[in-house]
Design brief:
single chain; two-stranded antiparallel ribbon; 8 strands
Length: about 675
């Protein structure tokens, strides 16, 4: 029992010294169920006993797999494409029954202390056997040799490669099948234990990305650790970033670089992978390249050159079975290395040239020994950041719009409610940095500096984004499509910055926050709450337009415009039987006078063939509050709605809101 669990039991009135074991177990079960209830709620999955039991059952099945005999990896070589968590667990239980008196090595690659010596003694000659086969005496090769030996399988290089691939795939499943991932499978209606291991492994990796465990997050953690390590020099920092970016570039080729190196009969080292990536980018020119993390001045050609292989457009079909196994194993190792890469581990190696000449297998084994203490410090800082972002207003915004309470959503909701430093302000700052060509890239050395994608400055800026949203605001379905298009465009731009930028921890934080914020803004637009950047001569301000649903016999909208020059301006718009009532509140006297000077124009804009103005009322102050009156709005119950009158449709409310915004923009430009 953990200290946390003990503490929870004490809070609930349990006494561990005096209460019966049955009562304590029931208390622990209640704590566990509450944990899964919260996970289901955060994952937007129905919270019921069936789903709680399903999550627990799936986790238990994967946990059981960890103790299955590693020997299964050799007996299942022919049937591996069909093997699942369920089938491997069943086969493992059969093996245990049939070999009850024998000690065995488990699938999870953490040797049991009580049997480590006996296994080592049984395979004392693995090193010499591997040497005879022309293979390195790495821990992965030794383990694969043992696994084959348990069942007297042929000790061939091909079988060793297959066992290593399967071993890595199943271990990645066991390490990454967290409770949040189990909930995500339930949400998608997929039974993970029935999926083939390879497919399950790929789906778990995709889900981790969806849940926020992205390359950007890993890189941010990597940069944070370097900034906290005062012993790392600036030269080492550049080298370490170069290694990380190379691994990311290899991963992004979806196996092309790995396949090219394998096809060329080269070892899977970072040096050879660098050649493959550079050759692919340069369109096939093979040359000596000096890189920031080591000098690559030679390239020894054994078989078909990497250049030739890359230019054939790599695919699985281009490789034979043995080559495909090696490339697939390399892909798993790249994922594992990226997950575990730390400045501490690289610093311990002293010379980064050692790293680039090591095989991926060797690098992965070195990283397994690294100290994880800095991970805890990093996540403690993230937790502190989350606590600072959690406000009652942000919580209410998520709850009332039925959005899951995740770290990304809480921070995005906090940004959404700001006057300044919103997602659009952050995006504009990023675009301005690229316009100024800060730290322009040296393409010869391929330094990763902050430069925008080609054409970004000309085709995408905040003013064009603002105009596009305002132009389409009158059409409810069209404006929602526009938000989704803009989100895709912004995500592509952010991806380019991430891949090319000489980024700091703050840069990475802004990029993640912009990306999450754009997704959140799109989700809010689908709920008819629109945030629009307004570019004026005084700078950038943020407009929020919220349509209120189920308001009975009236149509209502709220528009909020924070102005640097005039203070906050807010509109409460009501339309009933085609008659418009407007209540405009200005934070300052200057703002009130400026708006009233445009009263005739506003009244004319609110009158058309579809609507007529009934009244415009004014107020001074900030009656709606900093976070907006309607963030906590709850619609009327169905029985409260009077259907005798005709409320305005969505298009009419949006058209009126747009007219008001354009007049406020004009006032702001003249202020």
């Amino acid at each position: 029992m953990t200290s946390d669990a003990s503490g929870e039991l004490l809070k609930k009135g349990f006494h561990l010294e005096t209460d019966s074991l049955v009562k304590v177990v029931e208390g622990l079960k209640e704590i566990e169920d509450n944990y899964y209830r919260n996970l289901l709620k955060e994952g937007n999955v129905n919270v019921n006993q069936e789903n709680i039991s399903t999550v627990k059952a799936r986790l238990l099945q994967v946990e059981e797999l960890k103790s299955a005999p590693a020997a299964l990896l050799s007996t299942t070589l022919p049937s591996w494409p069909q093997e699942t968590v369920e089938s491997l667990t069943a086969a493992g239980n059969d093996y245990k029954r049939n070999h009850a008196a024998d000690s065995y090595e488990t699938l999870m690659t953490r040797p049991r202390a009580d049997m480590g010596d006996s296994i080592s003694k049984a395979f004392q000659n693995t090193g010499s056997l591997l040497e005879e086969m022309g293979l390195e005496a790495t821990e992965a090769n030794k383990r694969a040799l043992r696994i084959l030996g348990y069942n007297n399988m042929p000790l061939t290089s091909e079988n060793i490669d297959l066992v290593k691939l399967h071993d890595t795939q199943v271990n990645n499943v066991m390490k990454n099948f967290h409770p949040a991932v189990a909930v995500e499978f339930i949400r998608k209606g997929i039974n993970p234990v029935e999926l083939p291991i390879e497919e399950l492994n790929n789906q778990i990796n995709a889900m981790k990305e969806e849940l926020g465990v992205t390359d950007e997050e890993r890189f941010s953690r990597f940069l944070w650790k370097m900034d906290k390590n005062n012993e790392i020099t600036e030269e080492e920092r550049k080298s370490y970033i170069g290694i990380y970016r190379l691994l990311n570039a290899v991963d992004k080729t979806d196996g092309a670089a790995l396949g090219a190196v394998v096809k060329a009969d080269q070892d899977l080292t970072l040096k050879n992978l660098l050649t493959a990536v550079r050759t692919r980018r340069s369109g096939g020119i093979e040359a000596s390249v000096d890189d920031s993390f080591g000098t690559l001045s030679e390239y020894t050609k054994k078989g078909e050159s990497i250049t030739e292989q890359i230019n054939t457009t790599y695919s699985k079909e281009a490789l034979d079975a043995s080559e495909h196994t090696k490339a697939s194993y390399g892909k798993e190792l790249v994922r594992e290395i990226k997950e575990n890469l730390s400045p501490e581990a690289l610093s311990a190696l002293k010379d980064t040239n050692d790293v680039v000449n090591m095989t991926l297998e060797q690098v992965a084994e070195v990283l397994k020994e690294q100290n994880k203490d800095t991970d805890k410090a990093y996540y403690n800082e993230k937790l502190k950041e989350l606590k600072e972002s959690v406000t009652k207003e942000a919580q209410a915004l998520l709850d009332n719009n039925k959005l899951p309470v995740t770290l990304a959503n809480v921070m995005a909701a906090s940004d959404y409610l700001q006057k300044e430093n919103t997602v659009f302000h952050k995006l504009n700052n990023l675009l301005q940095r690229s316009d100024n060509n800060i730290e322009a890239a040296d393409t010869e050395e391929e330094q990763f500096t902050l430069e925008a994608p080609e054409g970004t400055e000309r085709s995408f800026n905040l003013e064009s984004l603002s105009d596009k949203l305002l132009d389409n605001l009158e059409n409810d379905s069209q404006i929602k499509n526009v938000y989704q298009e803009i989100e895709t465009e912004v995500q592509d731009i952010l991806k380019s910055y991430y891949e090319k930028g000489n980024l700091t921890v703050k840069d990475m934080g802004d990029i993640r926050r912009i990306g999450n914020g754009m997704q959140f803004i799109t989700q809010m637009a689908l709920r008819e709450s629109y945030q629009i950047p307004l570019v004026t001569t005084g700078g950038i301000t943020n407009v929020n337009v919220t349509l209120l649903k189920n308001t009975g016999d009236t149509g209502k909208a709220a528009v909020k415009i924070p102005s640097r020059n005039l203070g906050q301006i807010e509109l409460n718009l009501t339309v009933k039987n085609n008659e418009v009532s407007a209540f405009i509140v200005c934070e300052t006297r200057e703002g009130l006078e400026a708006v009233k000077s445009k009263e005739a124009d506003i009244a004319e804009a609110f009158s058309s063939k579809d609507t007529k103005i009934k009244q415009i009322s004014y107020g001074i102050g900030n009656t709606f509050g900093e976070t907006g009156r309607y963030n906590n709005y709850k619609p009327k119950e169905e029985g409260e709605i009077n259907t005798g009158d005709t409320p305005a449709d969505t298009g009419t409310l949006l058209k009126l809101s747009k007219a008001f915004i354009l007049h406020m923009k004009e006032i702001e430009n003249q202020a």
